[in-house]
Structure formats: C-alpha cells, structure tokens
Amino acid sequence: MATTYRSVKVIFQNNTNQTLTVHGCAVLRGIWTKDVEAKQGADIQKQVAVWGSESQEIVAGTSAFVRVGSVHGYVKVSWSLPWVGAFDFSAQPEETLKDVLRVLPYEVDDRRPDAVVVSVTLEEVPRPESPPAG
For the purposes of burial, counting CB atoms within 10 Å of the CB of 64, is it exposed (0-12), middle (13-18) or buried (19 or more)? Predict the structure, then answer.
C-alpha cells in the first residue's frame, strides 16, 4: 500500500433545490483519493458530495479543482496543499450566480497540516420579501 504524504478532503453540501452537475474536474498535482474522486457528469442532488486528492510522492503536494454547474451558472471549487507552504482553498461562484446562489463561509480543519478537511456549503440566496398586496 502506498504512503500518502499530503491529502485534502472536500465536503461539499448542496443546500439548494437544484440538482447540480460536475462539469469539469482535474487533479493538477497528485491523484484522486480512492472512493472520493470527482467524476465528470456526476449529479449532486440536495446532499453531500465528497471529493479528495492526495500525493503519494515525497516532496510533492496535491492540488485539484471541481467545476459544478447549475441552470444559472458555475461554481469552481479548487484547492492546493503544497509540500511546504500554506494551504489554499477557493469556492467561487460565477458572476451570473451572485443573485441566485451563494457559498457560505467554509470551514477548514487543518489540525493535521498534511491531511486537511474542508466543509463548504452552497445555498440559494434568499429572495426579498414582497410587501403584502393592498
């Protein structure tokens, strides 16, 4: 069994009423973690999706991204955990989503700096209340 030197696990919570779809994904450094790899075309209902990447090479980190689509646009989730240096994470919706979907502040568990876990939630932007009619 190979040794894992760096790993990132992303817990993505879809709190929208939309079925989201993975429209693009790639590991830029390292490999997908077994059983939690992102898959092109995978649907994400109102549930949790888990993705992960890891490095099995000494002196190498891991980085990856997942592009999730809705009927209104895309959210790009990306991460990088270098061998030396700071962990970097981003979950950015496209400009077309700013009035429809939002990413809540995410939580990073880096108590083990070589095995980081991130929880991120996507939800619908509340619509303004309409004043009562007449």
Answer: buried
Residues 6+ apart with CB under 8 A from 128: none
Q: What is the pTM (predicted TM-score) of this model?
A: 0.90
Residue length of the chain? 134
CATH classification of the domain holding 58: 2.60.270.50
Separation of alpha carbons 30 and 101, rounded Å: 31
Domain annotation covers residue 1: no
Q: For residue 62, tell me if it sits in a domain.
A: yes
| Enclosing domain of residue 78 | 6-124
What is the per-residue pLDDT across 107-134, written as a single tens digit (0 to 9) for each? 999 999 999 999 999 999 887 776 666 5
